[in-house]
Amino acid sequence: NAELTRLLARSVRQHDEAVQLEQVARDITSSLDRVQVLDLVVERARTLCRADLAWLAAYDAESETARIVALAGGEDRALMNFVARPGAGATGWVLRHERPLCVNGPDADVISPDERRAFGSERLVAIAIVPLSIRGVPAGILAIATREPRTFDDEMTTMARLASQACVALENARLYEERTLVAQEAERRRIAYDLHDGIAQMIVSAKQHLDTCQDVWGTDRLRAASELEKGVDSLQRALAETREILTSLRPSSVEAVGLRAAIQTLLTDTGRQQGWSTDLRDVLGDRPLPFAVENAVFRITQEALSNAARHAEARHVSVELRHDGESWIEAVIGDDGRGFEIKPGVEPSNGIGMESMRERARLLGGNVTITSAGRGTVVRARLPLTSVTTW
Predict the structure, then answer these.
(1) 225, 256, 262, 303: which sits with the fewest CB atoms below 10 Å from its CB?
(2) In sequence order, what are the residues at sequence separation of 6 or more whose Cβ sits closer than 8 angstroms to the Cβ of residue 171?
(3) pLDDT at 355 (0 to 100)
């Protein structure tokens, strides 16, 4: 009966841990913020394994060192400043051999003098360390420790699962950061293009007209007045273009008013400025959407409307928001303008704006397609409702 009770208690504990690990996996992979992921991993390692401390050290191949980047349960500077090297001490052994290790006792032979000082500052006695590896390349270690003797027999499996989940989440976070930098660079190029080919040219034209006005002011008042009028017109167009760029750079209103209201306001305001008739069809209903997806849909729609205003010479523009079951959302932006030629099998790439739209969609695992048949253009953005990031 005692053995049966012990086995039953262990089974219940393992079931509870499995449920918690499933929740941990969802929590970890739902964030693309590297710092948030690291903090979550070490906190969950500490609580799930009933440890006093937990930490994660990231390995840098260039300097061949591993430094602690997240710590739960302790604040001692000696531990936070600890630097590990492959082959040196218990941490270095795990980094070199890429195998887990448990140490019981601060005076164990495998503990290095640097580790003894760092671990001793927190009075740590028992330590378990598992490796982090991404694509077969050492990425660091995840460790838990207690101030009382422990064997960690049952905790090593939990640690290994956490380490695996942490690697996936960190990979996703790194990819997202890299893609975000690409998107930001594309946005900078778009702004530079707008400034150079738009505002700068208008200002140069205005200066030329005003210079001519100044030159002929005393001899030809009629021509001077004409040149002044042209210069003022160029400055007014430059001012309008500047306002448009500034508007596109402002934080979107999606978070404050919701996706439908934000797009309705954008469509109505742009339509009024351009003289379009507009139509918004929303079949999303009240279903909640991830903010990253809503913001991407808004920005893609904003860019598509901006392109239509500049190039389409349209009379009517429509936006449709719809979903495909539980997996996808689509935004379809169409105009009846003059369109442009698309060669069969060739993805249209004329303009930084199109590149920006496609990159925003790719960041979330989606895509943007653009079709044009001589008259009219349709931009179709398709995004997953759950972020799909792969390395």
Answers:
(1) 256
(2) 134, 391
(3) 77
